[in-house]
């Protein structure tokens, strides 16, 4: 029987030896060819009296590429895994028939060795390359013991368990990848294309190599390309991590997903929109699924910690208790299962989110969301609809309403701020026309400056005016007071040093938002606040209306981020929901960031989760899905540990066989898998709250001592009653630590 184990090793060694020698031979051949090439090049160069140019340096400025794992064709990988799964079934079959036809024994061995080949490669890699005995090594040892003890069928079954788990995980991953890619493609993406000297807005996918796109302040560069005109400061943080903006001008390369902070450039496109979309999707898939969840990390750590001692223990046990008991003992190791289950659980929940119109770009975000206790909302464009309405236009002597509106529209040109959209719409509705301006300067959080023949035009906030040394006339000041008291936003229009008019904008709060806030409280969110760049008046009004705990107004973009980090320093876990350029930094700092489809591209690029319907309605569902994921991950971990305990008993107390131990693993593995893949529907509101509270209580019971989880659970259960009482008196005034406007 030891003969069979020997045969396995001998064959593997033979195959590997053959491969290595082939590799060496190929290497030599390559060297020889390279030498010949260089030799010929030198001869030619000498003949032409020029020195051959050095080989081209690889570009260092390249955008990040998808890791190796994603460049493997998933179709082929799946086919390969399925092939080995089928082969292990065949092996089991042959070994089974061997009982009737003993001559089939050697055939079974050949089939076994073939099926074990990829597995042995992993084992070799672990031992030779990583110099570490990992779980693969341990289980391989168990399977060799099984084979050596003459349980051929069981050994085949052991192989099948390994291969089928891998191919099952790959299949689930493929399905989710497709789903996520589909949802991503629905994101509305438009770019400004230069056609015969004028700029037109076209869908991103229509872009072809050689086209010229125009990108101005506050927009994200949609493509890889070369700057052919203009100058811009570009934030490459998303790409290179460097926070210093880079100056780019004619001849420089720029990359997709970087943002223009100031300036305006024409870019010649290098890759078509479809190619760029494809590479974006592959990047997206890397970040959404190519990571390890906390629970997986924990599980892997435990598995790793247990591996060496178990190997040693197995070595000691083998001569004493024999192969069977040792193999059963090894099978009590909970192995790699969490490594398969955790990503599958995450994928499953990302897929459910996608089916409900939420694109989770980073799986970690979904995992972290259930620990969030503080949600910060941006106001304009997030809590209010992405297009307020121009309500009134105030004019100063010498100007007419239409003139003020026309100036404002001229300045707003291609800005994609909700205020800009509202003004442009009003101007269009009034059938005004205005020239296309190229050199407008947008100062985020303040407003826009344009140099016209008649003077310097400024359109923006009151602070923008006073900061530029422009006073507010009394008549306008009175109008501002009234507008703010009813919750409206006022935009100043100034020419040179004088305010010439103002525009009053009426926001419309997204429907059912106060209901949503109440819903989130039921789901365990303790603290909710508005963080807005707008004035105190309208911000307070909305905060009261919606029953927020706090509000921050006149907040500049960097300050939004400070608010997030301050809260985090107090131990809060913060989710930031925003739509604008002014939210991007805060979103980067937040534990979880969410944006809405149709918001500024910088915001949707930074956000880890995008609400594809363009509104907040699905937020409750999202939190629920996150809690569900957390519960599933915990259950997965339990279901991987349970069979281990049972098998440990099997080895020392019940004395059962190897097959029994594998069946225990198989049974629990199947249960865990079914649990992870179980389809689930989103329940109604009351049911959601109950399920989250009970999950948290359950966890608290088990996790006594781990303060963070226990605290979170506390808050959820307390909030149950708390949330109810709050909802009944939601009209009560908010006690508001107000952040004073920065001067
Ligand atoms: N495109 C613009 N046109 C005119 N004024 C602007 C523009 N962008 C910003 N402003 C002025 O600067 C202020 C701050 O703008 P910012 O974009 O930081 O926040 P916001 O849109 O008002 O509110 P929120 O932060 O809630 O989205 C605005 O209230 C407005 O007065
Ligand atoms: Zn906003």
Automatic annotation (TrEMBL):
Keywords of this entry: ATP-binding, Cell membrane, Membrane, Metal-binding, Nucleotide-binding, Translocase, Transmembrane, Transmembrane helix
TM annotation in the entry: 95-117, 137-162, 310-330, 653-677
Cellular compartments annotated: Cell membrane; Membrane
Cellular component terms per the entry's GO annotation: plasma membrane
Listed Pfam families: E1-E2_ATPase (PF00122), Hydrolase (PF00702)
Catalytic activity: Zn(2+)(in) + ATP + H2O = Zn(2+)(out) + ADP + phosphate + H(+)
Major localization listed first in the record, in broad terms: membrane
Domain spans labelled P-type ATPase A: 187-285
UniProt-recorded Gene Ontology molecular function terms: ATP binding; ATP hydrolysis activity; metal ion binding; P-type zinc transporter activity
EC number of the protein: 7.2.2.12
InterPro entries found in the cross-reference section: ATPase_P-typ_cyto_dom_N, ATPase_P-typ_P_site, ATPase_P-typ_transduc_dom_A_sf, ATPase_P-type_domA, Cation_Transport_ATPase_IB, HAD-like_sf, HAD_sf, P-typ_ATPase_IB
Segments for region (Disordered): 47-69, 697-743
Family classification: Belongs to the cation transport ATPase (P-type) (TC 3.A.3) family. Type IB subfamily.
Protein name per Swiss-Prot or TrEMBL: P-type Zn(2+) transporter
Organism: Sulfidibacter corallicola
């Amino acid at each position: 029987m030891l003969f069979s184990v020997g045969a396995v090793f001998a064959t593997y060694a033979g195959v590997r030896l053959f491969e290595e020698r082939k590799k060496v031979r190929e290497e030599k051949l390559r060297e020889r060819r390279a030498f010949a090439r260089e030799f010929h090049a030198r001869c030619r160069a000498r003949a032409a009296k020029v020195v051959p140019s050095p080989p081209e340096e690889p570009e260092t400025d390249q955008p990040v590429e998808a890791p190796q794992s994603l460049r493997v064709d998933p179709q082929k990988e799946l086919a390969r895994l399925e092939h080995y799964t089928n082969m292990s079934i065949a092996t089991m079959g042959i070994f089974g028939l061997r009982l009737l036809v003993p001559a089939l024994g050697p055939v079974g061995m050949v089939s076994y060795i073939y099926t074990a080949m990829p597995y042995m490669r992993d084992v070799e890699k672990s031992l030779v390359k990583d110099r570490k005995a990992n779980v693969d090594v341990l289980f391989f040892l168990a399977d060799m013991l099984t084979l050596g003890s003459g349980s051929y069928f069981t050994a085949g079954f052991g192989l099948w368990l390994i291969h089928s788990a891998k191919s099952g995980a790959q299949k689930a991953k493929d399905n989710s990848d497709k789903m996520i890619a589909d949802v991503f493609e629905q994101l509305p993406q438009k770019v400004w294309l230069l056609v015969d000297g004028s700029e037109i807005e076209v869908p991103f996918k229509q872009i072809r190599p050689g086209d010229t796109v125009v990108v101005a302040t506050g927009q994200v560069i949609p493509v890889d390309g070369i700057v052919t005109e203009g100058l811009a400061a570009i934030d490459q943080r998303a790409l290179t991590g460097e926070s210093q903006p880079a100056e780019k001008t004619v001849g420089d390369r720029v990359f997709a997903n970087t943002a223009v902070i100031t300036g305006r450039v024409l870019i010649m496109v290098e890759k078509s929109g479809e190619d760029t979309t494809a590479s974006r999707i592959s990047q997206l898939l890397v970040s959404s699924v190519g990571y390890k969840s906390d629970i997986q990390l924990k599980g892997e750590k435990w598995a790793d910690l247990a591996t060496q001692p178990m190997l040693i223990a197995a070595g000691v046990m083998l001569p004493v208790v024999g192969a069977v008991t040792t193999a059963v003992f090894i099978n009590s190791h909970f192995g790699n299962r969490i490594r398969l289950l955790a990503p599958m659980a995450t994928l499953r929940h990302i897929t459910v989110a996608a089916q409900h119109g939420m694109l989770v770009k980073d799986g970690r975000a979904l995992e972290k969301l259930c620990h969030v206790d503080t949600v910060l909302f941006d106001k304009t464009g997030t809590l209010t609809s992405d297009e307020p309405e121009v309500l009134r236009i105030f004019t100063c002597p010498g100007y007419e309403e239409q003139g003020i509106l026309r100036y404002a529209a001229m300045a707003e040109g291609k800005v994609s701020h909700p205020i800009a959209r509202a003004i442009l719409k009003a101007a269009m509705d009034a059938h005004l026309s205005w020239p296309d301006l190229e050199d407008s300067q947008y100062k985020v959080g303040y407003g826009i400056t344009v140099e016209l023949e008649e003077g310097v035009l400024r359109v923006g906030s009151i602070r923008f005016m006073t900061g530029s040394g422009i006073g507010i006339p009394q008549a306008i000041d009175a109008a501002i007071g009234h507008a703010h008291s009813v919750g409206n936003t006022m935009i100043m229009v100034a020419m040179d040093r004088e305010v010439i008019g103002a525009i009053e904008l009426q926001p419309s709060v997204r429907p059912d938002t106060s209901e949503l806030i109440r819903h989130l409280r039921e789901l365990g969110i303790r603290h909710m606040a508005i963080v807005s760049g707008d004035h105190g008046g309208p911000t307070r009004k909305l905060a009261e209306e919606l029953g927020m705990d706090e509000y921050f107004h006149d907040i500049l973009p960097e300050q939004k981020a400070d608010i997030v980090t301050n809260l985090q320093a107090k131990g809060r876990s913060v989710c930031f929901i925003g739509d604008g350029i002014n939210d991007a930094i805060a979103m980067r700092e937040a534990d979880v960031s969410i944006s809405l489809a149709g918001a500024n591209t910088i915001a949707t690029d930074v956000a880890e989760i995008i609400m594809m319907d363009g509104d907040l309605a699905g937020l409750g569902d999202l939190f629920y899905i996150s809690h569900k994921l957390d519960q599933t991950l915990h259950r997965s971990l339990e279901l991987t540990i349970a069979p281990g305990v049972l098998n440990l008993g099997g080895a020392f107390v019940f004395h059962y066989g190897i097959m029994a131990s594998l069946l225990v693993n198989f049974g629990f593995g199947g249960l865990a898998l079914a649990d992870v893949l179980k389809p689930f529907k989103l329940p109604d509101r009351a049911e959601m709250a109950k399920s989250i509270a009970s999950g948290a209580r359950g966890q608290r019971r088990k996790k006594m001592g781990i303060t963070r989880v226990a605290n979170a659970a506390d808050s959820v259960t307390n909030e149950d009653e708390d949330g109810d009482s709050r909802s009944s008196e939601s009209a009560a005034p908010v006690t508001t630590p107000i952040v004073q406007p920065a001067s």
